[in-house]
Design goal:
The longest helix has 98 residues. Among the domains are: 98 residues, Immunoglobulins (Immunoglobulin-like); 53 residues. Strands 5, 6, 7, 9 and 10 form a 5-stranded antiparallel sheet that branches. A 3-stranded antiparallel sheet has the order 3-4-8. The chain is built from 2 helices and 10 strands. 41% of the residues lie in helices and 19% in strands. The termini are far apart. The radius of gyration is 60 Å and the shape is elongated. With 248 residues, it is of the alpha+beta class. One of its GO terms (biological process) is cell adhesion. It is a single-pass membrane protein. Keywords: Cell adhesion, Disulfide bond, Immunoglobulin domain, Membrane, Signal, Transmembrane, Transmembrane helix. Pfam families: FN3_DSCAM-DSCAML_C. One of its GO terms (cellular component) is membrane.
Amino acid sequence: MNLTASNSLGTGEPSRSVITRTKGAAPMPAPQQSFITLNSTYVILHIDGWQSGGCPILHFNIQYKHKYQTQWTSFPERIPANRDKVILGPLVPDRDYFVMVTAHSEAGVTQGEYKFRTLPMASPIETTSLPALVRREADLPFHRNVTLLIPVVVSSLVLIIVIFTVVVCLRKHTQDRRGQQEYESQKAVTDSLLMSEVSQKSLSGKQSVNGSHYSSPTRGQHQFASSKSGGEQRRTDKQHEYAEPYTA
């Protein structure tokens, strides 16, 4: 933009052009986690999660379709920006859908497309036509609350398996240790018996050796005595010969 000045004499030359920009931007879509609340036959769209971008949102247009459809179904009316949520339905349980939300403001138009799947009829959340009557999982009894029941059951099974494994390992270790002790006891008894037999055999061998050693000198003495007596006899005979010489 530029400026020009005028007076009674006329209009002056325009000033140098200046480029500027107003504040604000087009609306920004809401994240899906906080934008859609699922149910079996309807969903709740929290349109208050959209950001204005600095310029107020004027209104919303909503369209939706089944996953395998080509034509969009438009919501019958424009949604004013001062509403916080919109109920979209009726829908088929356990089916995939697309929803497109278009936000209009003076700064521009923004479209946000979301994909979701309705809950099955067997879901813990009961389907009704009024969102105020929707029962949340936290309000259900413990035995019907699948979100709490499944982790408890799984944890209990894991704990039982761990305890059973520990008991089996301890019992096996005890049996192995007991078998080792019995084996060592039997081995000690066997070694003791073998040592006793070896000692008895050794003692018997010593006794037999001693008996043969003692009998030999006796026989030697007898032989010596007999030989001695024979010598004396021979000497006696010789003395007798010398005592009585032979005369022819």
